[in-house]
Amino acid sequence: MDHCLRTLQRASAIIVLMLLALVPPAFANDSTFAVEPRVDNGVLNLQQWHIGRHPILNLNGMWRYSPGVKITPDNVDSITTTREIPDLWGVPQNDSERWVFSNMGHAGYALTINHLPERPLALHLNRICSSADIQLRDSNGQWRQLGQVGTPGNDDSDTVPHIRPVIINLPTDLRGESILVINVSNFHLRDGGICDRIELGTAAALKTSELQTVATTMMTLGILLGVGLYSLGLSIQNPIESSSKWLIAVCVTGAVFFISSESMLEVLFPDPSSTSFELHYKLRYLGLLFFAPALHRLCLGALKRRNESKLERYQRMVLWLFGVFILFFSAADFTLFAPVLAALFTYNMFRSILEAYRAWQYREPGSLWLLVGLMALGIAMLLQPLSYTLHNESRLAIQVAVVMFVFLQSQFIGLRFNNALNESRFLSEHLQEEISRKTRDLRQQQKELMSVRGELQAATFVDKTTGIYSRAYFENQLNIEWSRCLREQRPMALILFDMDGSKIVNRDFGRAAGDQWLFHFAHKLGDSVRRQSDIAARYGGDEFVLLLPDCDLTEATAMAEQFLAHIHNEALEIGGQSIGFSVTAGVQATIPNEDSTATEELINRVVVALHHAKEHKRGQVHTYRPIKTSSDEE
Asked: What string of DSSP letters covers 239-265?
């Protein structure tokens, strides 16, 4: 990550230095170039213009102006009013002009040009949000139609505005004095009017200048999108970083602004008729609407000590309200609120610089880059109105300032995220070590718990006296095997054994001898188990039980009789005396069902069978039969 950041910084520094190298010619004195003629009272004298050294000339200045009407061959010589170009439609210069702009309509601009050089020249008109007719009257008094921008008409239904730059070639046979006439028709916007820059020069130089502007705009757009994607990836990797989403918002709104610029329109819409006037203005105003507030939020995100004021929350409501208004209403409606947008932009830029300065005071990472970038953007904003009267190359200074801002902004966010990721990586490693340690401790505790659990289970499930399974283990396995036999619909049998004469053995031979006697019997019973699923357990006192899954009554009875025949032949030698075994058994088998008391019923029937055998004939095997009379039971 550090290597990528250093690479980005070096590449950014190289590109910024290359762009800065283009700036000095914009501010050079006139000794470097020939004297640039200026428009004065509607007349331009080109006698001092050296086109070879200075191929592009701005035609900004005082043009003859006819408010409300078009300039024609009949009235061109009678026009004496002058007006500064560039101008905005609907912005009067004095109180007497206010009635002229109460409604949108027509206006005419005329410029007398003396001493045109004998070289092919062209006119370059940048973005014009109206339609216009461009005509020329040569020195012989002949009127020529040079071109048309958009579609002029008489009302808003047949007038189509033009929003792209256009280059119009002049005739090559012009000599002496000519009058350039631009008739503008504007029924769509109150801030349209004549374009904000008209240039005269060779077609190749004008085209090169336009391509430079497009290239710079494309570069800025690419930087915005690149930084936006970079911040998006980092915000996904480190969602704790709060300033990432605001950088994405800045990049998206800035991209919208640059996409809608006139230089990009030529790239996006090669066919002029396909350019949507409404789409252009909606994109432009949306970009202007959200760019500065998003930039302000980015500066707030750079501060660890930040609070959102009520004014910012109200502003957010206004922004969304205006955004919806721009989307669903026409350009002629929402351009009335341009002063509100300008106020929001100015406020947010001022607050952004203030927040960046505070971040720099607090030594926040990357705050110096952000502050310098904002200052560059402020310089670009100041150069914008000055570019109308400066040399043509001054536009490069504006583009450079914008590119500088974007690059420095990327430096800020790169440092910001680099520190955040380093901190996140440190915390992640520390957390990983803590998790590993806790995991080791937990595993050790689990091992100890399993050991204790095994010991408890052994103590619970194994009878201490006899060494075979206890009653608790028997009841647990009974439920497990019952569920399996119920699922497979297999029979299950129980055999309950009772050792006759246990009290006599304890009385005559002692307690220790009685325990040995029980131990011997339990192991003989355990040895009789043939299948792994069969379980022999001590049921209680001198009673033992044999659990036989997958065994019916006939098989269980035969097994019980076989075991009794074997155990009755056994004898235990204790203290030189032989102690025999007399055992009575009760047997019952059933096919499990879903009745909740079925297992208890099976055990009760085995107990009943055993007690019935002990009352009538001990030492034998008896099965459960629901017979009431003693004779029938026998």
From this structure: TT-THHHHHHHHHHHHHHHHHTSHHHH
Position 180 scores a pLDDT of 93
Res 239: pLDDT:
62
pTM of the model as a whole = 0.52
Nearest-angstrom CA–CA distance, 539 and 518: 12
Residue 61 in 3-state DSSP?
Answer: strand
Residue-wise burial string across 19-33, b where 16 or more C-beta atoms lie within 10 A, e elsewhere: beeebeebeeeeeee
Residues 6+ apart with CB under 8 A from 111: 39, 42, 43, 44, 59, 63, 64, 179, 180, 181
- pLDDT recorded at residue 250: 72
Looking at residue 151, the DSSP 8-state letter turns out to be B
Burial of 71 (C-beta count, 10 Å sphere; 0-12/13-18/19+): buried
Res 61: pLDDT? 83
**Nearest-angstrom CA–CA distance, 401 and 244:** 23
Closest C-alpha among 539, 553, 546 to residue 591:
553
CA dist., res. 63 & res. 475, Å (int): 109
pLDDT number for residue 413: 63
**Residue 577, pLDDT score:** 78
Q: Using alpha carbons only, how large is the chain's radius of gyration in Å?
A: 50
Q: With a cut of 50, list the residues of the chain below it in pLDDT.
A: 1, 3, 22-34, 99, 102, 388-394, 629-634
Distance between CA 194 and CA 179 in Å, rounded? 17
Which long-range contacts link 574-582 to residues 24+ away (Cβ below 8 Å)? 574/509, 574/513, 574/516, 574/517, 575/509, 575/513, 577/509, 579/505, 579/509, 579/513, 579/517, 581/499, 581/517, 581/521, 582/499, 582/500, 582/501, 582/618, 582/619
Question: Cα(620)–Cα(555) distance, rounded to whole angstroms?
Answer: 16
What is the distance between the alpha carbons of residues 36 and 29, in angstroms, rounded to a whole number?
11
Element (H, E) at 544: strand 543-549
Query: Are 597 and 554 a contacting pair, CB within 8 Å?
Result: no
Given this model, what pLDDT does residue 23 score? 46
